[in-house]
Amino acid sequence: YHEEKKVLNGMLPKSQVTDTLAKEGPSSPSYDWFQTDSLVTVVIYTKQKDINLDSVIVDHLDDSFRAETIIKDYSYLIHIGLSHEVQEDFSVRVVENVGKIEIVLKKKENASWKCLGHPLENHNSFIPKKDTGLYYRKCQLISKENVTHDTKLFCLMLPPSTHLQVPIGQHVYFKLTITGTELVKPYTPVSDSLLSEFKEQVLPNNKYIYFLIKIYSAGLFTPELDHLQIGDFVSVSNPEGNLKISKFQELEDLFLLAAGTGFTPMVKILNYALTNIPSLRKVKLMFFNKTEDDIIWRSQLEKLAFKDKRFDVEFVLSAPTSEWDGKQGYISPALLSEFLKRSIDKSKVLICICGPTPFTEQGIRLLHDLTFSKYEIHSFTA
Ligand SMILES: Cc1cc2nc3c(=O)[nH]c(=O)nc-3n(C[C@H](O)[C@H](O)[C@H](O)COP(=O)(O)OP(=O)(O)OC[C@H]3O[C@@H](n4cnc5c(N)ncnc54)[C@H](O)[C@@H]3O)c2cc1C
User: Could you tell me if residue 62 is left (phi over 0), alpha (psi between -120 and 50 degrees) or otherwise beta?
Assistant: First the structure.
């Protein structure tokens, strides 16, 4: 029992801790556990201050308990076969100023546990995030709503045995088995609407994740996704992506350049920036589409611009009807130089760009020509 407890308390023999990590990466986290009659609390000491509820992803399935904590670009995994049964739901708390994460499990029976359990694969490992595989859990389709002629708003529900919040600017992978083959594609969560208050702050344990997805009738994946019935399941991975939220600190001008479904990362960015960045003076979205019918959430964008004077939206169409009196064409030096006007001289600026690869590449080239530095540009790419 002592041996087992020792390993499970995070005190690994020295040989298992990589030397390079100690020198280059953040210092290695550790964990512990304690219990009351009815609860078991697993505590993760991250030894970092910038930890929040996005930082930890918890899943438990039958007796296997998995908690992955993201610390800078590293992943710390707790993976244990629990010694006793626990209830499906649990709670997660973060004590930000000391970087402590507490996961409170409810015992099925009020018995005293002699040990937490036995280590499973990669338990207590601390490795670069890029070297970890993707972990999937099955999410249920709750609703599906038409947004444009080919784009739908999907609502998925996480299982009660999962805690997962997708950070702003990150995406997840969907996995479906199509005619015997597993297929995986990335999608970017959005808020359920542009006009609701910023949900992540209000409801930290939100179980619903929303996606705006364009269905390609000749596509490989999206027709299958579209065929799912309400109540069906799709596997959803842990989040990935490299937008650093610190880029928004002290920000004064935020410019968003989106084409088609490249609009999806902008949704949470917009909600986040307008709610959480007091220094923000101006947010402008330039939204490129083929026709008016392709514009996702047009009226919501127009309402938001009306409601919040800091926000402006400009639609640019490449194949408009003769009635269209707005901007036309593709991303160009003329469009950008007129659009990217700072609200004050030398303001702190961030430009986010997302769309098909040629759009994004061309956009980045033009932004560099307009002398924006790479620190002022964030591009979303595959
Ligand atoms: C990080 C990231 C985030 C993303 N987030 C979202 C999101 O939030 N919402 C969203 O809708 N999409 C998103 N995407 C795109 C998404 O991952 C898929 O690429 C998209 O859903 C298309 O999937 P599909 O398999 O149905 O279509 P595909 O089979 O990939 O086909 C797409 C279209 O291209 C055509 N096509 C396919 N192959 C060829 C070819 N060889 N020559 C010519 N045409 C061809 C098809 O006919 C179809 O019209 C994201 C992509 C990335 C990289």
Answer: left
pLDDT at 274: 95
pLDDT for position 19: 45
Would you say the CB of residue 188 lies under 6 angstroms from ligand 1?
Answer: yes
Indicate the pTM of the whole model: 0.91
Give the CATH fold of the 142-237 domain: Elongation Factor Tu (Ef-tu); domain 3 (2.40.30)
Question: What stretch(es) of the chain map to CATH 2.60.40.790?
Answer: 14-131
Residue ranges in the chain modelled with pLDDT below 50: 1-22, 201-204
Does ligand 1 come within 6 angstroms of the Cβ of 261?
yes
pLDDT at residue 11, rounded to an integer: 44
**Amino acid at site 58:** V
Helix (H, G, I), strand (E, B) or coil at 336: helix
User: Which residue lies with its CA nearest to atom 5 of ligand 1?
Assistant: 187
Residue 190: what pLDDT? 96
90 CB under 6 A from ligand 1?
A: no
How far, in Å, CA of 208 to CA of 39, rounded?
26
Q: Which atom of ligand 1 is nearest to the CA of 240?
A: 1
Q: Would you state the pLDDT for residue 30?
A: 96
CATH of domain 14-131: 2.60.40.790
Distance 225 CA to ligand 1 centre (A): 12
Q: Where in the chain is the domain with CATH 3.40.50.80?
A: 245-380
CATH class name, domain 245-380 = alpha beta
- Asked whether 212 lines ligand 1 (CB < 6 A), one says yes
**Residue 186 beta carbon below 6 angstroms from any ligand 1 atom:** yes
Predicted pLDDT at 195: 82
Residue 163: closest CA among 84, 78, 279, 251: 78
For residues 202-230, one letter each, b for 16 or more C-beta atoms within 10 angstroms of the residue's C-beta and e for the rest, the string is eebeebebbbbbbbeeeeebbebbbebee
> What is the distance in A from the centroid of ligand 1 to the CA of 30?
41
- The pLDDT value given to residue 310: 97
